[in-house]
């Protein structure tokens, strides 16, 4: 495997490690963006109003039990013919990534907002803060720790599932594993696995740092 | 949906279903058995807590396909060996459940522990008679997550050829044929619901003192 | 002035939380709502800043009806303090305090300056300025809560059980400090409590509510003790009414004649003490003539030491109410109550019969002014 890594031709070029990492990050980033776009507002709304709690809990449970590989394959066959060229597998894959990432973001955000000290919210209302100010000045910052933990699970889920989506031709580090398997090249598979694991750990670390920078020490109780 | 195909293949599908069942359940059971002592160690704060929970978090970060591929390097197995999948899923279940068990023990009210001490319980009897039973609701909640996500992760092992329902997905894609894919998804969801219900039921039976059973 | 004009609140058409409440909380005074749990105190209070909408009736601020005001603007005019402070956990202490000033449009640095000043006024050192709420005790959090309500310098304040969540010692301190503060700032305040002693201690005017949200009595604390409107109020005020009434201003400076008291200092021999003594007990003072305790001449073996002192007697500060003076007498082993000056120096002692005469005089004087 060390031999595999020390071969410079494996690193550069359109199917080299660098290109695959970039692809993996782009697909994951796009999916995470859309998942946040959907999950955050719903979580904030449900947490703020207390309406729809049962609904999102049920939805999160149901989505968790869906097999991601089956879902990707299903969507590729169903929607593949609708799109031209690479979009035939990119769009279905991204949809599945988003679908899997929404529940943790949504539940984390909801749980975070619901757990905000009711006395603090009451005080904010009593002093004359308007509803949106309460949401963005009090509820959102206080919910950040749980929002970040939801974001973290969602991101790991995305990176993991994006690897699997290489099976339906999606680019990214999963290519090394799937192609390695097809070519009976175990070292290429193992290299891909190591790289995916490393990528996941690094992204996890980055989110951890981001959360340290944005969450108030008043909440983490860390000085 | 081609029901005649389903009928013709029902024997093989049943076999895959049983494989799937085994691959989903066995790792969680082993994971739980290992997680109980480790979670207990972790809950007793200090060095063990940060190390164990840190290691668990790290393991949980590794994508499933990567773990399936890397385990032969560690275990010396062949890539097609189902053992890889069992070990990988045990690792996930363990990583999740160590935290759950430690949280569960943490959730036991300190008053209760003090009362047990005052009655003269030693540490181990207290653990089995008082703490673990009271930790069941939290542990059960974690167990449900572990079981349900395991059912989904097992199907990924189809990519390295392990027999289970995931093979219906790869077959469906190769044949551009929806029937096995839909059948696979439905069976996966059913299996997840079944196992989830089982854990829920068992937890309710074990916590008759809880209003509304194990759901919190 | 806050006016309730036949205000009622029904929940889901069923529970009557507040029933046709009409009363006025006068400008610059502290009005206290008191009553048993569930009698509608919180509901009444929260209808003032419209956190709860009245089912019928109107509430007016200085004669202006609140129901037509913009609700956020209304709330910004009114300071609001709640039981568990409700501080923002993600903001530091000064940031918390500055919030209300910022909401009312004060520029940021000025708001922070106000916050720093207020920190001292509520009895917290500037070392607390940049701490987070979790680093504060319950009593300290409550002080910050009061400071936060004051930062916008509102004319009106609403306080819901502000001192209930802290232990009795801290509660006493917070009450005393708050009384002092209110003497300076003179806000129009409505405070809710379930604790009749707190109501009698703090209130300029006490509003007693009964279960079902009806008004039982509105009166000054003295009137309440002297003339409870009915059995419910009398019961609610509880025992010791006659004794507690001695705590009010009209019983202050009762003109109890002070007797001279011979004193000794630590180290005095039993012989010296016996010479000074008028009976078994001799008052012992420090070199600055501040009372330390009583020495029992009969049981003294050697020179007088710290451990020989009986410390049971309370001290009444000169000019304090007859309640304190009487307590000083009753708690003193010699039967003579010790009266001290403002800086703790001995002024003299009083006897029970003199206090009794003063109480009698004050009582008849008070009865004399009764219509
Ligand atoms: N949101 C609500 N819905 C229904 N009933 C309520 C609600 N809030 C308060 N109540 C009822 O109204 C009555 C007065 O409550 P409250 O004003 O909180 O009493 P207090 O503050 O004097 O203890 C109580 O009987 C209480 O149960
Ligand atoms: Mg109340």
Automatic annotation (TrEMBL), chain A:
The chain crosses the membrane at residues 25-46, 66-84, 90-113, 157-178, 190-213. It is found in: Cell membrane. Residues 21-207 form the ABC transmembrane type-1 domain. GO terms for biological process: glycine betaine transport; transmembrane transport. Keywords: Membrane, Transmembrane, Transmembrane helix, Transport. It holds the Pfam family BPD_transp_1. It is a multi-pass membrane protein. SUPFAM superfamilies: MetI-like. GO terms for cellular component: plasma membrane. The keyword Ribosomal protein does not apply. Belongs to the binding-protein-dependent transport system permease family. This is ABC transporter permease subunit. It comes from Rhizobium straminoryzae.
From TrEMBL, chain B:
CDD domains: TM_PBP2. The keyword Phosphoprotein does not apply. It is found in: Cell membrane. One of its GO terms (cellular component) is plasma membrane. The chain crosses the membrane at residues 16-40, 52-73, 79-98, 132-161, 181-203. Gene3D superfamilies: MetI-like. One of its GO terms (biological process) is transmembrane transport. The keyword Transmembrane helix applies. It comes from the Bacteria. It is a multi-pass membrane protein. InterPro entries: ABC_transp_perm/SBD, MetI-like, MetI-like_sf. Pfam families: BPD_transp_1. Residues 17-200 form the ABC transmembrane type-1 domain. Keywords: Membrane, Transmembrane, Transmembrane helix, Transport. Belongs to the binding-protein-dependent transport system permease family. This is ABC transporter permease subunit. It comes from Rhizobium straminoryzae.
From TrEMBL, chain C:
The keyword Metal-binding does not apply. PROSITE patterns: ABC_TRANSPORTER_1, ABC_TRANSPORTER_2. The keyword Transport applies. Residues 2-237 form the ABC transporter domain. One of its GO terms (biological process) is quaternary ammonium group transport. Keywords: ATP-binding, Nucleotide-binding, Transport. InterPro entries: AAA+_ATPase, ABC_transporter-like_ATP-bd, ABC_transporter-like_CS, P-loop_NTPase. One of its GO terms (molecular function) is ATP binding. Pfam families: ABC_tran. Belongs to the ABC transporter superfamily. This is ATP-binding cassette domain-containing protein. The lineage of its organism: Bacteria, Pseudomonadati, Pseudomonadota, Alphaproteobacteria, Hyphomicrobiales.
């Amino acid at each position: 495997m060390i031999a595999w890594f020390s071969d410079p031709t494996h690193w550069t070029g359109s199917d080299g490690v660098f290109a695959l990492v970039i692809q993996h990050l782009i697909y994951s980033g796009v999916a995470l963006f859309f998942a946040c776009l959907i999950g955050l507002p719903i979580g904030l709304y449900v947490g703020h109003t207390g309406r729809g709690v049962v609904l999102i809990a049920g939805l999160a449970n149901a989505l968790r039990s869906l097999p991601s590989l089956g879902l990707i394959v299903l969507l590729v066959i169903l929607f593949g013919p609708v799109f031209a060229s690479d979009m035939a597998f990119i769009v279905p894959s991204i949809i599945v990534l988003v679908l899997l990432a929404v529940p943790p973001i949504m539940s984390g955000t909801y749980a975070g907002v619901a757990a905000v000290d009711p006395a603090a919210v009451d005080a904010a209302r009593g002093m004359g803060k308007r509803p949106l100010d309460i949401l963005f000045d009090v509820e959102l910052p206080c919910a950040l720790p749980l929002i970040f933990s939801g974001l973290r699970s969602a991101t790991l889920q995305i990176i993991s599932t994006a690897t699997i989506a290489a099976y339906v031709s999606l680019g990214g580090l999963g290519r090394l594993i799937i192609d390695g398997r097809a070519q009976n090249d175990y070292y290429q598979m193992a290299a891909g696995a190591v790289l995916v694991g490393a990528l996941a750990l690094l992204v996890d670390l980055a989110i951890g740092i981001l959360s340290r920078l944005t969450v108030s020490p008043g909440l983490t109780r860390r000085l | 949906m081609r029901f005649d195909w389903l009928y013709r293949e029902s024997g093989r599908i049943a076999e895959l279903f049983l494989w799937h069942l085994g691959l989903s359940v066995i790792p969680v059971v082993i994971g739980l058995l290992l997680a109980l002592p480790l979670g207990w160690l972790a809950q007793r704060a200090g060095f063990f807590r940060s190390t164990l929970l840190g290691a668990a978090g790290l393991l949980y970060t590794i994508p499933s396909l990567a773990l399936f591929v890397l385990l032969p390097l560690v275990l010396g197995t062949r890539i097609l060996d189902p053992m890889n999948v069992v070990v990988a899923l045990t690792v996930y279940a363990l990583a999740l459940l160590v935290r759950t068990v430690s949280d569960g023990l943490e959730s036991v009210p300190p008053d209760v522990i003090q009362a047990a001490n005052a009655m003269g319980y030693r540490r181990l009897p207290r653990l089995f008679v008082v703490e673990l039973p009271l930790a069941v609701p939290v542990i059960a909640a974690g167990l449900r997550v572990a079981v349900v996500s395991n059912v989904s992760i097992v199907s990924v092992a189809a990519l390295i050829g392990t027999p289970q329902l995931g093979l219906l997905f790869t077959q469906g894609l190769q044949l551009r044929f929806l029937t096995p894919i839909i059948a696979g998804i439905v069976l996966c969801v059913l299996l997840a619901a079944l196992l989830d219900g089982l854990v829920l039921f068992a937890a309710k039976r074990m916590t008759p003192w809880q209003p509304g059973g194990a759901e919190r | 002035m806050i006016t309730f004009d036949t205000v009622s609140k029904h929940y889901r058409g069923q529970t009557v939380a507040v029933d046709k409440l009409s009363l006025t909380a006068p400008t610059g005074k502290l009005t206290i709502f008191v009553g048993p749990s569930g009698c509608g105190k919180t509901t009444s209070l929260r209808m003032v800043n419209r956190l709860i909408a009245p089912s019928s009736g109107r509430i007016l601020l200085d004669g202006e009806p609140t129901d037509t005001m913009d609700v956020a603007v209304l709330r910004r005019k009114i300071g609001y303090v709640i039981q568990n402070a409700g501080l923002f956990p993600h903001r530091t202490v000064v940031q918390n305090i500055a919030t209300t000033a910022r909401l009312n449009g004060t520029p940021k640095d000025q708001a922070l300056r106000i916050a720093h000043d207020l920190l001292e006024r509520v009895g917290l050192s500037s070392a607390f300025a940049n701490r987070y709420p979790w680093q504060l005790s319950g009593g300290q959090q409550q002080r910050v809560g009061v400071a936060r309500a004051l930062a916008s310098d509102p004319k009106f304040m609403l306080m819901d059980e502000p001192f209930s969540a802290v232990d009795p010692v801290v509660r006493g301190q917070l009450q005393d400090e708050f009384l002092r503060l209110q003497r300076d700032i003179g806000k129009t305040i409505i405070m809710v409590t379930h604790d009749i002693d707190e109501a009698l201690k703090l209130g300029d005017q006490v509003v007693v509510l009964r279960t079902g949200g009806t008004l039982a009595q509105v009166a000054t604390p003295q009137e309440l003790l002297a003339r409870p409107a009915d059995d419910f109020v009398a019961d609610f005020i509880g025992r010791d009414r006659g004794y507690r009434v001695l705590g009010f201003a009209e019983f202050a400076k009762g003109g109890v004649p002070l007797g001279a008291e011979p004193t000794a200092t630590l180290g005095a021999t039993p012989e010296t003490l016996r010479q000074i003594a008028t009976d078994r007990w001799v008052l012992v003072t420090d070199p600055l003539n501040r009372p330390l305790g009583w020495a029992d001449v009969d049981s003294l073996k050697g020179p007088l030491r710290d451990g020989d002192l009986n410390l049971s007697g309370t001290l009444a500060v000169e000019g304090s109410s007859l309640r304190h003076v009487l307590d000083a007498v009753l708690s003193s082993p010699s039967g003579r109550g010790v009266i001290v000056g403002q800086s703790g120096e001995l002024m003299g002692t009083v006897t029970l019969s003199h206090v009794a005469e003063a109480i009698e005089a004050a009582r008849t004087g008070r009865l004399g002014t009764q219509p």
